[in-house]
Specification:
- This protein has 681 residues and is mainly α.
- Helices cover 62% and strands 2% of the residues.
- It has helices at residues 13-22, 34-38, 45-53, 57-62, 64-79, 86-105, 112-119, 125-141, 146-160, 172-177, 180-190, 192-210, 220-227, 231-256, 264-273, 286-302, 306-310, 358-372, 377-390, 393-399, 430-444, 452-472, 480-496, 498-501, 507-528, 532-544, 546-561, 568-581, 583-603, 610-619, 645-668, and strands spanning 314-315, 332-333, 339-340, 355-356, 405-406, 428-429.
- The strands form three sheets. A two-stranded antiparallel sheet has the order 1-4. It has a two-stranded antiparallel ribbon with strand order 2-3.
- The relative contact order is 0.08.
Length: 681
C-alpha cells in the first residue's frame, strides 16, 4: 500500500443504513428497534440527496415499497411523540422533508399519481396524510421545543412547494380535504410568542394554500379567511406584515443614507442566514417581500374585517441598539417582535419610530417599490392592494378622518429638475399620503418605457378617492393644484409619445380616465373642494394649459375619423369617447378665452395677471353652459380578471421556488440556530 495514499474516512452509520435502504433491503426485519434507532440519528440531507441522484427511473419504481414504509414510519413516529421524544419527531420530519423534495425532483415521475404512489402508496395516501397533518398541527400548537416547530413548518412548506406550479401539486388535494392547517396558522398568529418565532412561516403557508386552484375549484382556505373575524388572529397577521415591511423600509433608508457598505439584499441575507453564512450560496430572499405583499393583498381583498387592522394606530417600537458591535449590519429582534438592523448604522432621522399604523407603513413601503421598479410585481401588487382599500367605504372614511392624522415620510426619487424639500412631513389624514404617493408616481415615470398598466391603476385609485369625497361631501385640505398640474403633464406627455405608446396600448383609455377626474372637479368640485377659491383655481389651470387639451382633442379627433385597419374599432370608439368627455373642458376654454380676449382688447395690455384671470372667471360663471356627463362617479368593482391571472401565477411560482430553496439551504446547515431539542429541566 502506498504510504502517500490518503486514507478513506469511514462511512457514518447513517450512510451505511441508507446504502442498504436504496439497494432495496429492509433492515427493520432483523432489528425490531430499527426505526426507533434510525430516528435518533441526526439526518444528513446530502447523503440522502446523493443516493436519490444515483437512482434511475426503474430503480426508483422498485424502491416504492421501501419509500412507502419509511414514510409511514415517519408519520407513526410523529403520532407517538411525547415530550421526551422530540429528537425522534424532529428527525422524522426532516427525513420526510428531504424525501418529499427528492421524489418530486425526479423528472421520471410525470404525474401526481406516480409521485404519490411512490412516496406514500396511493391506496393509503388519504389516511396517511390525514394522520400527518393532524400530528403536525399538534406539534406546532402544543408546548414543544422551537426546533420541532421550525421543522414542522418546513415540512408543511415543503409539501406545498414541492412543485413549481402549485396548481399541479397533487399532495395539496389532501390538505384541501383535511384543512386543519388553517387552524394551525391562525393559532400561530394568535399566540404572541409563537408568532414572534414562526409568524412569517405561518403567513407564507397560509398564502400558498389560498392560491391553490384559486380559480378552478372551491378552496376551503379562501372561504375560511374571508369569514375570519377573530380579532386577535387578524391583528397577529397585521403584526407580521408590519414587521417585515418595516424591516425592508429600514434597509432601504439605510442604503439611501449610505449607512453601510452592504446592499439591502446582502443585509437581508445576513439577517436570515446569519453573518457567518456564505452569501454566494444563499438563495434569493426576494420571495419574502413577494409573500408578505401577497398576504397583505389577499387579506384586504378577501377579508373585510382586516380593514380595521389596517387603520389601528399604535406607537412604533424604538430601535434597539445592537448587542454586539460588528462591522457588518446584523439584525436584532426587539421585545415587540420587530426585526431591525442596529441603530448606530441608521441616520438620526429614522432612529425613532413615529406613531403609525399598518396602512401608513404600507404606504411608505410602496413609495420605495414604485420608484425601484414601476412595472415590477411588487409595485403592481402595491397598486392592486391600494385599489381594494380605496373602494372600501370604511377604509375611505378612516383615510379622510381629520382626527386620525399621521406623518408618513414617503420616498421621493431625486430628479434634476426639482430640489427635494427638507421640511418635516406634517401630520395629515392618510388620504393625503395616498394622493401624494399617486402624484409622485405620475410625475416620476414619464419615460419611454412607459408603465401603462401601472399608470392606469394609479389614476383609478385617485378616481375612487374623489368619488368618495363627492358622495359624502368630504372637503379634504390638500394642495389640489399640484395634482392638477401632474395630471396635465401626463396628458401632455401622452400626446407627445403617441406613436410610441399606441402600437402597444390604447392611450385613449388612460387619457379618458384622467379627463373623467377633471370632469368630477368641474361638475361636483364645489361640494368637496376646501374653498371656492380652489374651484376658481381649477378653471385657471384649465385655461392656462388650454394648448394641452386642444392637442389632445385634435389627436382624438384624428383617430376617430381615420382609424387605421390595424387599430380596429376599439381604438376608434375610445377616441370618440374621449372627444365626448372633453366637451366641458373645451366649453370652459372657449367661453373664458373669449372673455379674456375682450378684456385684453379693452385694456390694451399684452398680458393678464393671475388676479385678472380669476376675476374674469368669477364674473362669468353664470353665462357658462356645461353638460351633465353620465357615469362620472362610477367605478367598476375590483376583481381578479383573467388579465391579472398570469401576473399572480408568476408571483406565486417565484414564492414557491424561493421558499423551497431557502428550506433546502436551512436543512444543509441545521446547527445555525443551535437549538436545544430536549428540555432538560
Amino acid at each position: 500500500m502506498d504510504k502517500n495514499q490518503e486514507k478513506v474516512p469511514p462511512k457514518s452509520k447513517l450512510s451505511l443504513i441508507y446504502e442498504e435502504f436504496f439497494k432495496g433491503k429492509d433492515s427493520s426485519r432483523k432489528n425490531p428497534n430499527f426505526w426507533q434507532e434510525l430516528f435518533l440519528i441526526r439526518v444528513n440531507v446530502s447523503t440522502i440527496e446523493d443516493q436519490f441522484n444515483k437512482l434511475s427511473a426503474e430503480q426508483l419504481i422498485n424502491l416504492k415499497g421501501n419509500i412507502n414504509k419509511l414514510f409511514h414510519q415517519c408519520v407513526s413516529t410523529l403520532k407517538e411523540n411525547r415530550k421526551g421524544h422530540s429528537i425522534r419527531s424532529n428527525n422524522a420530519m426532516q427525513t420526510l422533508t428531504v424525501f418529499i423534495r427528492c421524489v418530486h425532483s425526479k423528472r421520471e415521475l410525470t404525474t401526481s399519481f406516480d409521485i404519490i404512489d411512490v412516496l406514500i402508496g396511493f391506496d393509503n395516501a388519504e389516511l396517511v396524510m390525514q394522520t400527518l397533518v393532524t400530528n403536525v398541527h399538534r406539534l406546532i400548537v402544543d408546548d414543544n421545543p422551537k426546533a420541532v416547530k421550525v421543522n414542522a413548518f418546513n415540512l408543511m412548506l415543503t409539501i406545498v412547494t414541492a412543485v413549481d406550479n402549485i396548481g399541479q401539486n397533487g399532495l395539496l388535494e389532501y390538505l384541501m380535504i383535511y384543512n386543519v392547517v388553517f387552524e394551525t396558522c391562525i393559532e400561530t398568529l394568535c399566540h404572541s410568542v409563537i408568532r414572534l418565532e414562526h409568524g412569517f412561516q405561518a403567513v407564507l403557508l397560509l398564502i400558498l394554500l389560498i392560491n391553490y386552484s384559486k380559480r378552478e375549484a372551491s378552496n376551503p382556505y379562501i372561504v375560511k379567511l374571508s369569514i375570519l373575524d377573530k380579532e386577535i388572529a387578524l391583528n397577529g397577521l397585521g403584526h407580521v406584515i408590519s414587521t417585515v415591511l418595516n424591516t425592508y423600509i429600514r434597509w432601504y433608508e439605510k442604503e439611501l443614507h449610505g449607512g453601510t457598505d452592504q446592499s439591502w439584499y446582502s443585509s437581508i441575507v445576513t439577517w436570515y442566514y446569519g453573518s457567518t453564512s456564505d452569501q454566494s450560496e444563499a438563495p434569493s430572499l426576494e420571495y419574502i417581500a413577494d409573500a408578505i405583499l401577497l398576504a397583505m393583498y389577499e387579506a384586504v381583498h378577501l377579508n373585510r374585517h382586516f380593514i380595521s387592522v389596517l387603520t389601528n394606530s399604535h406607537t412604533g417600537t424604538p430601535l434597539s441598539p445592537s448587542s454586539s458591535p460588528s462591522s457588518t449590519a446584523t439584525a436584532t429582534v426587539t421585545d415587540g417582535g420587530s426585526v431591525t438592523p442596529p441603530t448606530d448604522s441608521l441616520p438620526t432621522a429614522v432612529a425613532t419610530e413615529l406613531p403609525t399604523n399598518l396602512l401608513a407603513t404600507f404606504l411608505r413601503y410602496s413609495s420605495f417599490q414604485l420608484q425601484r421598479e414601476a412595472s415590477g410585481s411588487n409595485a403592481i401588487l402595491c397598486l392592486l392592494t391600494l385599489t381594494c382599500i380605496t373602494e372600501d367605504q370604511y377604509a375611505c372614511s378612516v383615510l379622510h378622518d381629520p382626527n386620525l392624522t399621521f406623518r408618513v415620510p414617503l420616498y421621493r426619487a431625486p430628479m434634476r429638475h426639482r430640489k427635494l424639500s427638507d421640511k418635516t412631513v406634517p401630520s395629515r389624514p392618510l388620504a393625503c399620503s395616498v394622493l401624494d404617493l399617486m402624484l409622485e408616481f405620475i410625475c416620476s415615470h414619464l419615460m419611454r418605457s412607459f408603465p401603462f398598466d401601472a399608470y392606469l391603476r394609479c389614476i383609478r385609485i385617485v378616481h375612487r378617492i374623489l368619488v368618495y369625497e363627492k358622495k359624502y361631501r368630504v372637503r379634504l385640505v390638500y394642495p389640489w393644484e399640484q395634482l392638477w398640474a401632474g395630471l396635465i403633464h401626463l396628458l401632455k406627455y401622452l400626446v407627445s409619445v403617441e406613436s410610441v405608446i399606441l402600437p402597444e396600448n390604447n392611450l385613449f383609455i388612460l387619457a379618458s380616465q384622467v379627463i373623467t377626474i377633471f370632469n368630477i372637479y368641474i361638475t361636483y368640485g364645489d361640494t368637496f373642494l376646501p374653498s371656492a377659491t380652489m374651484y376658481d383655481q381649477l378653471y385657471y389651470e384649465i385655461i392656462r394649459c388650454h394648448d394641452v387639451f386642444d392637442n389632445l382633442h385634435s389627436m382624438a379627433l384624428r383617430h376617430s375619423v381615420s382609424a387605421t385597419p390595424s387599430s380596429g374599432d376599439t381604438l376608434k370608439q375610445s377616441a370618440t369617447r374621449l372627444i365626448n368627455q372633453l366637451s366641458n373642458i373645451r366649453a370652459i376654454i372657449n367661453h373664458f378665452n373669449t372673455k379674456l380676449d375682450s378684456l385684453t382688447a379693452v385694456d390694451g395690455s399684452g398680458s393678464l395677471t393671475l388676479d385678472n384671470v380669476l376675476e374674469v372667471v368669477r364674473s362669468n360663471y353664470d353665462s357658462l353652459t356645461l353638460r351633465l356627463l353620465d357615469s362620472l362617479d362610477h367605478c367598476d368593482r375590483y376583481g381578479e380578471v383573467s388579465k391579472q391571472t398570469p401576473f399572480l401565477v408568476g408571483m406565486i411560482r417565484s414564492i414557491v421556488i424561493g421558499t423551497r430553496s431557502s428550506i433546502r439551504k436551512d436543512s444543509l446547515s441545521p446547527s445555525r440556530d443551535s437549538i436545544q431539542l430536549i428540555d432538560f429541566t
